[in-house]
Amino acid sequence: MILITGAAGKTGRAVIAALAARGARIRALVRRGEQVAALEALGAAEAVIGGFEDAGALARAAAGTRAVYHICPNVSRHELVFAAAVIAAAQAHGVERFVYHSVLHPQIEAMPHHWQKMRVEEMLFAAGFALTVLQPAAYMQNILGAWRGISGEGVFRVPYPVETRLSLVDLDDVAEAAAVVLTTDGHAGATYELVGTPALSQTEVAAAIGAVLGRDVEAEAETVEAWEARAASLGDYERTALAAMFRYYARHGLAGNSNTLRWLLGRAPNDLGKFLIRAARFSG
Hints:
Blueprint: E1 2-4, H1 10-21, E2 26-30, H2 36-42, E3 46-49, H3 55-62, E4 67-70, H4 79-92, E5 97-101, H5 112-125, E6 130-136, E7 138-139, H6 147-153, E8 155-158, E9 165-166, E10 168-169, H7 171-183, E11 190-194, E12 200-201, H8 202-213, E13 218-221, H9 224-230, H10 236-252, H11 259-265, H12 272-283
Parallel strand pairs: 1-2, 1-4, 2-3, 4-5, 5-6, 6-11, 7-10, 8-13
Antiparallel strand pairs: 9-12
């Protein structure tokens, strides 16, 4: 049995589907009962309902599992506290295998949520598990958040300069790599960067979108302040952390290398064009 924490999010759902395709037995930890049916449809055999602050739920989730795949909610101020609780439950129930969903280049202190993941990695190194750390780049799926502006206005709007270069990865590839690591031997002690593309400028991303849609799409920069005004529904920590990330991107970009993901998958990672064809078909 493999436990997936944070199972109802987009990453958790993708990992469950990839593990189910390999015949794995999966237990999902979710906050709300109404999330269970969708995860069972993806292939989860069991579900435990409860939050990371619920020690009883974590104990029920960890009991009888051979491995944990831990996903913290995105940009959470509680990253360290939640990880400590999951680690304690896994240790108490003798779980040997632990895979942590981190982020590309967590050592960058200027991005607070990256830095928090580095602290979790440090915690895990001392926890005694057969540990693997996965460090994915930004998901190609994040582009879908701008799809309304793309399809309606022909504008791909980003809160950093259009010259900013970022490596991307298809979430489906991340999920497949996670399933490989969880179901095959030889990955304990490894930290794997999961990167699908070279560092692309936002102008190049817009051109790729336009090529798939058969129309001109222009990359357009907005200020971080304008983004913050539109993101008023986010909590203060989340908004501040993401704004810091965008400012870092503007100065330095974020580049990775796809060789490790290619090796794990046994094939080339999905390129941006392939993902966009799939996304356009779904949105259409």
